[in-house]
Amino acid sequence: MNRVTESIASTAILVGLVFLFSWRSIDAANVSYDHRSLSIGNRRQLIISAAIHYPRSVPAMWPSLVQTAKEGGCNAIESYVFWNGHEPSPRKYYFGGRYNIVKFIKIVQQAGMHMILRIGPFVAAEWNYGGVPVWLHYVPGTVFRADNEPWKHYMESFTTYIVNLLKKEKLFAPQGGPIILSQVENEYGYYEKDYGEGGKRYAQWSASMAVSQNIGVPWMMCQQWDAPPTVISTCNGFYCDQFTPNTPDKPKIWTENWPGWFKTFGGRDPHRPAEDVAYSVARFFGKGGSVHNYYMYHGGTNFGRTSGGPFITTSYDYEAPIDEYGLPRLPKWGHLKDLHKAIMLSENLLINGEHQNFTLGHSLEADVYTDSSGTCAAFLSNLDDKNDKTVMFRNTSYHLPAWSVSILPDCKNEVFNTAKVTSKFSKVEMLPEDLRSSSGLKWEVFSEKPGIWGEADFVKNELVDHINTTKDTTDYLWYTTSITVSTNEEFLKKGSPPVLFIESKGHTLHVFINKEYLGTATGNGTHVPFKLKKSVALKAGENNIDLLSMTVGLSNAGSFYEWVGAGLTSVSIKGFNKGTLNLTNSKWSYKLGVQGVHLELFKPGDSGAVKWTVTTKPPKKQPLTWYKVVIDPPSGSEPVGLDMMSMGKGMAWLNGEEIGRYWPRIARKSTPNDECVKECDYRGKFMPDKCLTGCGEPSQRWYHVPRSWFKSSGNELVIFEEKGGDPMKITLSKRKVSVV
User: Fold this and answer.
1) Which residues contact 173 (CB under 8 A, 6 or more apart)?
2) Per the database record, which ranges form the Beta-galactosidase beta-sandwich domain (predicted)?
């Protein structure tokens, strides 16, 4: 072998040794830090972490997700703790199913990986209400994330409960567990000033409260520029190479590197190229970073009503390295795996060596790490976002593509360049299978009537706030009233219909006039309020107006976000002989929820609460309709998605498990100048609107149904369709990935 080949072979052996050492079993270890890195068991370590939120997948998926992250070169798993999932009512705790946090952390431990736990307990995360229980908003005197006793009492109480639970299970590193780092609060620095002096007091109190828990591992606060000396200030963003902690004794930690972005119903698909993600990571470690976390590494699914926003899709795929269904996304997963191997070759130098930065020309630089023996590692960067360049470094020429970093673990041989993708690519197909049953496919159908079912919950001469009324116990709130039309009205004679005007704070509305569906109006992920203007056919005599207001996930971030309302603010009809009829302060009757959810028609079996109609041809385009069908699981073992392209909007369940909201809403341009692209240019700084696709297509067509939810036969699929669709065209699609 020549010297280059010999060096590369040695490098490959070293990669194997580094990763073998990294995946050793984790024993009890003290965790400390200095300005360079965390020290675990008195040894400095680089941490490459993968965010996997336990309630966004199912327990049957957890081992393979963790293993796939490990195979991708990560040595830690990160997750938030989801307060509203664990404490759905005051002092009533839940840790079953997808919320079995102890089981999840033990799976991480069994894989020989570290755990970073962001207790918060506010999380944002595009999760309903930012993870805070809705009931807390209605505790008198409570202002979220501020210096007031109710908030601090419940926040500390929950944090202490979680900490004690994990201590009991011996899950912190000094106890022999995997947890090496924890977080209190979340991105509060963005909003602290809006809360005045109380904001600063609250931030300092949060840190003190966390440290007083005595968990034996460091605490951090992300995007908290005034973090006290007792906690580590950290960075979130698409790039954090220029970040500096707020005091010089703290390590450089990147808590959220966003390898993709979230999606909203009606929004287009954002894409972040693998080359740019790799560039950001290489720049971070080259500039002295030591703890890095991908948010998300596996995004997963917002099952049930857990999505926030509002308008966040049920899919939380995030274009992460592991896709929503648990499969590696190529080339992103593979390219980052290669990057992680290259970085870990220089681990010792990066956390112990002397760092120097050299300019190699315009937009060219080298970050070099050396030790006393002369061992050397280098990161060569081309910051030019348009032009490839050739650079001389230590008398050797290197070709650097635009917007790229080359890693030289021995200051000589390039083992990785962020713009040179050598990983395999994958072809993803959703292969449909018609719904089938070994006993013959039969549908059961139940149609609700628009408006009040049973008795009205209350009556008021005003329009009420939707969220304050439902307290998020349901998406649905009926506003109903009636008007009497005189036979003398001109529009009855001339055939020129009146016009209905409605204004709403959000999120979505279905309109029924005289029990007939008239139409839908909605906001979107960038502008939640909306207006409706629609011609309406009225008759002489009494006319019923039934308005079904809906939320699509509650706000999850922002100053005083818990006070953001929803629901109707004005209703009027123009075109009467006397002008406009203002109904805003008319007599309105209200009903929380829809009948089928109240009767729990989504639960397996027949409760006898309603009379289902059995048919082999269920009705099409029929609003407010429940469909139930018993099916066999699809063939094979591939992950499964429910194809709802033929349906309108609603919710779906399998065997009583909440698949979630479905809404194959077509993605539209925000402005006429918005464009969708065919290819993404990785060069230059990324923003969520830089590379968008999917114009004119459903923002979400397929809805993940975990394989573990299926029985061998007799599976009950239940669908509540709000506005009308064709259930005969629903299919179960298998996700097939072919490596190219």
Assistant:
1) 26, 28, 29, 30, 31, 40, 114, 179, 180, 216, 217
2) 365-421
| Catalytic residue selected from 78, 87, 256, 365 | 256
Read off the tokens for 335: 């390219």
Q: Which residues contact 340 (CB under 8 A, 6 or more apart)?
A: 48, 72, 73, 74
Cα–Cα distances (Å) from 434 to 441, 601, 730, in that order, read 10, 24, 7
pLDDT of 26 reads: 54
- Annotation marks residue 697 as catalytic: no
Cβ proximity of 703 and 325 under 8 Å: no
223-239 average pLDDT score = 97
The whole model's pTM is what? 0.95
What is the 3-state secondary structure of 508-573?
EEEEEECCEEEEEEECCCCCCCEEEEEECCCCCEEEEEEEEEECCCCECCCCCHHHCCCCEEEEEE
The region that residue 279 occupies, defined by phi over 0 for left and psi between -120 and 50 for alpha, beta otherwise, is alpha
What sections of 309-455 are H helices per DSSP? 332-344, 347-352
Pick the catalytic residue: 187, 433, 658, 697? 187
Percent of the chain beyond pLDDT 90?
A: 94
- The pLDDT value recorded for residue 116 is 98
Which of 246, 194, 258, 259 shows the shortest CA–CA distance to 220?
Answer: 246
In tens, the pLDDT along 287-315 reads: 999 999 999 999 999 999 999 999 999 99
319 is catalytic: no
Compute the C-alpha angle 704/708/712, nearest 5°. Answer: 115
Q: Is 609 exposed, middle or buried (0-12, 13-18, 19+ CB in 10 A)?
A: middle
Give one DSSP letter per residue of 423-486, joined into a string: SPPEEEEEEEEE---TT---EEEEEPPSS--SS-SEEESSPPPHHHHHTTS-SEEEEEEEEEE-
Higher pLDDT, 669 or 237: 237
- Look at residue 489 and give its three-state secondary structure: coil
Beta bridge partners, 535, equal: 499
Rounded Cα distance, 667 and 199, in Å: 38
Beta bridge partners of 428: 737
**End-to-end alpha carbon distance in the chain:** 31
- What is the residue type of 505? K
* Type of residue at 501: F
H-helix segments, 145-270: 149-168, 196-211
| CB-based contact 100:54 (threshold 8 Å) | yes
Nearest to 243 by CA among 233, 251, 235, 231: 235
Q: How far apart are CA 606 and CA 608, in angstroms?
A: 5
Helix (H) or strand (E) holding 178: none
Specify the pLDDT at position 24.
42
| Averaged pLDDT for residues 728-737 | 97
604 or 7, higher pLDDT: 604
Q: Which residue has the tokens 């004690």?
A: 164
Distance CA 717, CA 633 (A): 11
CB 729 within 8 A of CB 426: no
Distance CA 332, CA 308 (A): 27
- pLDDT, tens digit (0-9, with 9 covering 90-100), for 505-522: 999 999 999 999 999 999
Helices 274-286, 332-344: inter-axial angle, 10-degree rounding: 20
d(CA 673, CA 80): 38
Domains of the chain: 42-316 (3.20.20.80), 427-448+598-664+699-739 (2.60.120.260), 458-593 (2.60.120.260)
Strands (E), 151-287: 179-184, 219-222, 232-237, 253-257, 269-270
Cα separation, 732 vs 70, in Å, equals 30
Partners of 45 in the β-ladder: 38
The one-letter amino acid at 600: E
Nearest to 462 by CA among 588, 591, 549: 588
- Give every CB contact of residue 729 below 8 A, 6+ residues apart in sequence: 645, 646
